[in-house]
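Inputs:
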Amino acid sequence: MSRLPLIFLVAVIPFLSTLCTSFSPEKPSDRRILVLLDDLALQSSHSLFFDSLSSRGYALDFKLADDPKIGLKRYGQYLYDGLILFAPSADRFGGNIDSAAIVDFIDVGHDLIIAADNSASERIREIATECGVDFDDDQAAMVVDHTSYAVSDTEGDHTLIASDDFIQSEVLLGSNKIEAPVLFQGIGHSLNPANSLVLKVLSASSAAYSANPKTKLSSPPSLTGSAISLVSVVQARNNARVLISGSLSMFSNRFFRSEVQKAGSSIKHAKSGNEQFLTELSKWVFHERGHLKAVNVRHNKVGEANEPSMYRINDDLEYAVEIYEWSGKSWEPYVANDVQVQFYMMSPYVLKTLSTDQKGLYFTAFKVPDVYGVFQFKVEYQQLGYTSLSLSKQIPVRPFRHNEYERFLTAAFPYYGASFSMMAGFFVFTFAYLYNK
Amino acid sequence: MAALEDAKASSLRFAFGNVLSAFILLLIGVLAFSIRLFSVIKYESVIHEFDPYFNYRVTQFLTKNGIYDFWNWFDDRTWYPLGRVIGGTVYPGLTLTAGTMWWILNSLNIPLSVETVCVFTAPVFSAIAAWATFLLTKEVKGTGAGLTAALLLAMVPSYISRSVAGSYDNEAVAIFALIFTFYLYIKTLNTGSLFYATLNALAYFYMVCSWGGYTFIINLIPMHVLLCIVTGRYSSRLYIAYAPLVVLGTLLAALVPVVGFNAVMTSEHFASFLVFIILHVVALVHYIKGILSPKMFKVAVTLVVSIGLVVCCAVVAVLVALIASSPTMGWSGRSLSLLDPTYASKYIPIIASVSEHQPPTWPSYFMDINVLAFLVPAGIIACFLPLSDASSFVVLYIATSVYFSGVMVRLMLVLAPAACITSGIALSAAFDVFTRSIKFQLPGSSQIDAGDSGTGAVVIQNETTTEKKEDFVKERTSRKNEKHEDLSKERPSKKNRKKEKENVEKISVKPQEEKRLLVLPLEASVIGIFLLVLLGAFYVVHCVWAAAEAYSAPSIVLTSQSNDGLHVFDDFREAYAWLSHNTELDDKVASWWDYGYQTTAMANRTVIVDNNTWNNTHIATVGTAMSSPEKAAWEIFNSLDVKYVLVVFGGLIGYPSDDINKFLWMVRIGGGVFPHIKEPDYLRDGQYRIDSQATPTMLNCLMYKLSYYRFVETDGKAFDRVRRTEIGKKYFKLTHFDEVFTTHHWMVRIYKLKPQKNRIRGKAKKSKAKASSTTSSKKTGSKRKNPWH
């Protein structure tokens, strides 16, 4: 009897250890992904998207959103590294998952893909709002565009949009240009312009608006033009990444395969840009691209190897840092010419662009300013799509020691002369006064 | 033969008197030391208050790293991120003294800890200060006055307040240095010895090393020299006493890093140079007077005076222009506030905010110098009978120090020795008169006195009466004789050597002298002595009470006596210990500057501002943060890399000197640099209040929130025992700060800055459902339940 728990333990330990080690700063890509669906049929209707993930090595775990057994974490450990929420109409989730749990999931650094559609529930909207994305309040509204809709056989209500207004970023969308427009059918959302964490990846054209296509427009729509974002990404301050799309169907096999012709354009693409767009974007979301790390921050006086605990004013110093980017499999040198270091005390006293050897090493040399105090070497590197690097290393700068000043100043020679001649004169005077008589 | 015997007998008596006074001095030393141990006995052997903690930390550094590292110490743990060059901004006298004591003790294999040495430095030096007082007063009015003054100084409450065991502050050694410098000045003035003049310069150097109050010396001595010149008391002794002091003293003072070029650049020192010039002019005039005929001299005088006036005008104009070109007229703020008591409160809130920079109240005089306040006038009168160079110095000393003590409570400390000296003179003179009256009217002695003119009989008679009192009489009379001789004989320069001779001489003069002395009726004398002893007894009782009760509290440990026994509030050390155990070594702690020294010394954490208030802008930044709403404060603190904010709150136990009571100063200091902080915003109709009538700015500022966060949970009403009112806003949450630690009696509360939000939320539309869910999750996290949820 007593052996049973033991066996259980032995069986569980390796399992637990794989849980713990699956996501580490050394390998930032997520491995295990929970996919929550409204309907298990989605698994097959969106199989192309899921297959592309599986083929890149992700273990997908498909569950119904209201499955009572699901859970993001157990015993304080997260069971998954990523979450795909393809359950727009789910009003509540099963198990112990609620919107707060999903927000916490992001706050510990895990990634999320949310797809909504015009049946988007309060829960989904709430999670999106938490991430800084506001879906249109009107429950029935959809994005309508009478100029850049996708041409189809039947003259529809122009809610199937062919958009090619992508964000200009290789790190987000890959180095290959997406030729074909992306098909989109769903609800639009808006972003707060003051929010620096959220990016509009695919925006609607300037003629688009968000309204209920079935009814007549009685009042001006609240969301119009290119303020409407169709697909957005969020990178939280802890580098957790979230993809939010107003359309679930854009992930579907039907849209992936469909041929597309944008209204007003004569070119007819055999295949929509959805597959390329979403595959590349999912690579970014799951940290296969754009994840930087900085290691080996070091600094030393010129000509010395060891890192001092304190500099003196006007010292010459060298600073170096190595920056690597995660390629999905390994850390590759990150190459850029715009990494800067600040020598900072309340404001930057020195601001220098680091030179690079193209192998990940960034270095520079400069003179400590003529000010003492507690300085910091600061690297604040924030590039669109990349994880933000924020390094700071405190280092005090002291003034000269009492014996580090110049012993004799040329400018002061008259004074030296004066005092020594005074001394000699006094001696002579004393001698004369005492013994002359 | 008879004269020889007399001389023998009197020298024997002198020897006995010397031994006796040495013994008395030893006892005074023991008294001075032991009366200051109440704090150790009642509390424990700890460093007191704020500044001593810094001095202690510096001493630790000195003993660990040696003098050169101390000299070059750049401290990166205070005034973050500016740092502070400790070696160049600290008066090193105290530290070096204690460090040397520690080093000597250790090399003698007495392994005391640095803390122990620091704690007992002040009592040791107060004993030495008492001896220095003896020397000074002895130079002025003889041994009797010296012993009395030493005894008074050993237990004067004002001095005790700054020198109890554990009060390891500059003043502890500086008062000794002050008195000793004055002693050497008087000694030089009396003897005209260049040896003492050199010693005087060295003593002055020690004083400069020890305390910023050295400017008092370098202004008082010139004043006295000027007084002597004006009253026609110029002599070569005066020249020797003063000129070397200015030259050597200024050179030595410039060697102290913290003074440096200030010794010749700031106007606090100008008076000494001016008097130095005047002295030389006077010396030159005397010299010329000696070599010229009176007629020629007159011509020369008119010539020189007319030319001199022109030159003087030019020099004065240049000086005035120089001084006027500097913004504060060449005076530092602290000195200006000495001359104009309203200056500081008008222009420098950071000076006015310190309670010890406020003018004292009348009761504080009685508290701090007690009966001496009544004896001082008598002592001044005694100094005029007769007026010598030395006694005129004492008069000048007491007059100036009374003025300065009226400007700042802190300078009461300078008044105390002066009061002791004059009171000692007064008491001793009074005892003199009374005992002499008794002696002459006692049945046994009156007969001899009346008839006998033989001096030997009187002397022998003297031996049979109480030696000590008699000593005074003799000493006094001999001194008076000296003075008379001095005046006639153009003052002999080396009195010491002549002492023996004078002893013989004066015996013949003595009877005539004594006839002129005042003799009171016997009964009046007895009653007078009785009353004086009673007065002295009152003084002793008061001093012991002050030492034991008023001035022995170390202020980091508080006690309160109530019906249910003694309460000990050890919250400060609890909080600092928490900081040192639970925070990272490089974390920065922001608090009002009062707690800066303690935080660095006890918690070993970096602070933003501390008690060395050298950078007003930095302090104003912290003041602004404390008086801003949470978000603005968070931004200020975050820009300074602050991790923790520490506030002191006395509302729960009624500790009045907490941050809420200091808050208006934060507003004023912050508003002085950042004008968007306006004092009227925090006042309701000019009144500072934190109850429901308080202004919204007040109720939303960081200091209010950090002080009163969750305060309502203690008694349900949130009654502040210091302000004696219920607070205005009881239920609120903190958005940018997390409470991480509150001490047992809530005296110190430590908050941590929340990290920046991981996400930025969109428009809060459906916050209702969400808010409830997040708070529920928070509730489970925090142990303390929030009753308003």
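The radius of gyration of chain A is 32 Å. Flag for discussion at group meeting.
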